[in-house]
Amino acid sequence: SMPAKAKTVSVNEQILVEAARIYDARGEEGTEGKDLKAYAKFLSKTDAFTKHLPKDLLDRAINMRPPRDRITVLLVGNHSAGKSSFVNWYVGEKIQNESVAIETAGITIVRRGKSRVSWKGPQTVSAFPYLEKLSKMEGIVDFLSTEFCLSTEKNFPMVEFIDTPGLTDGTLKYPFDVDEVIMELAEHATMVMIFLDPIGKALVSRCMNVVERLAVKHSAKMTFYLTKFDTAGDEVDRTNVVSQIVQELQGRGKATHALKLHTIFLPERAGDKEGKVPNKIADLCQNVSKEIDSRVQDVLDQLSKDCAALSQIVDEKVERNKKCVAHNTRSGIWKAVLLFLAGVILSAMAYWALLNHAGLDPMEICDVSKAATAEAVLPDGSKVTETKSGPVSANVYCFLFKSAQGIPAAVVLVLGLVWTVYMWLAKTKRVEQLSSDEMRRLKSIQEDIRDNIAAKHKNLKKRLTEDALDDALA
């Protein structure tokens, strides 16, 4: 059976990797366009519907990124504080050169990969989107690199270390603005570890200035380690060094929480002093573990919020589309009615013009001769035409069209036409509605989120809970 340690690592790691895959399937077979990243892109594309979405929903969809599948630990400290040695110890391999001349020191990202490879700056920048802003800083890309290795020591598969150049006082010119680079990296780091060494260099003012700046925004992420503690002399010396550094840090920091300075040294270096000198390096590893646990919970929480947001966008669009379809149906009916009406009114106007101005009467509605004479057949078979006495009984249409020089009729017809045009403008405007393809896609997104992804999320949560309970009982 697997040792318990390996099991916990694997459950957290599986969850982080699988959650990231739900966001970005990375072209796995049959997943084309079927991940949250693709859904968010489709749902936030600009159309008549998107601009009516609540701003917070739309922002969430536009800014949706797959969660990073590991935590980022930024290492900051004065020159020779042992940052690189610590990375090598944690990873269990000699990745970092431990004695680098300051002027050649750069920023190195150390993370687990499929093989032992090194990347230079340009490749590093294009692979990690969070470095985009950093890469625009002057001179940095040439001093940026990534080291991948296969180690599965401790929690290394879920940790990415960013090792920064040692900070020194003095006239030395770095090829880039180290302080600014550290500030930018701290924005993206999960943890910022400050390494100080006891041999007088701990209070290097350059290092302290950076610590002070970091504390303004990131004090909650920061932890302090006094390294090489086994070299700090006897017990009295050690106590003095610790109190001196704590005092300096408290004067500098904006820390709201009590400042803890963890004293550490690398076990394999210590030789016979092991056991006599307090070593808090296990606490450091524990802190990393806790961060990973908390990251896993955050990722699951983010996943459920993101799914809910996308699902709500689909609902809003479908709902809006229903209203638009109903509106367009009504406008279609109005169109038919108004076209018929306009036809009737225009025909009547044409007839009015013929009657009143051309003296024509094709339908003979005002034919006086017809109205006024009658033909009778006498008993001997001969015909007689009789002219009726009295006024001509004119047709009612004739009366409406011709009375008072036809002016009232003209006014009524013109008003009728104006009303028809007005109603046409008011009632027949169509609004944009979604195509049947888009509706199908919305339905399939909704189904996938509500059935597939929800089930995956539930399963991840269940595994996390079971793993925690299992650990507690172990």
Automatic annotation (TrEMBL):
Keyword Hydrolase: yes
InterPro entries in the record: Dynamin_N, Mitofusin_fam, P-loop_NTPase
Transmembrane segments: 332-354, 406-425
Boundaries of every Dynamin N-terminal domain copy: 73-204
Superkingdom, taxonomy of origin: Eukaryota
Subcellular compartments: Membrane
GO cellular component, one term: membrane
One Pfam entry name: Dynamin_N
Molecular function via GO: GTP binding; GTPase activity
A Gene Ontology biological process term: mitochondrion organization
Presence of the UniProt keyword tRNA-binding in the record: no
Key words, A-Z: GTP-binding, Hydrolase, Membrane, Nucleotide-binding, Transmembrane, Transmembrane helix
PANTHER family hit by this protein: DYNAMIN N-TERMINAL DOMAIN-CONTAINING PROTEIN, TRANSMEMBRANE GTPASE FZO1
Protein's name according to its UniProt entry: Dynamin N-terminal domain-containing protein
Organism listed in the record: Cryptomonas curvata
Native organism taxonomy: Eukaryota, Cryptophyceae, Cryptomonadales, Cryptomonadaceae, Cryptomonas
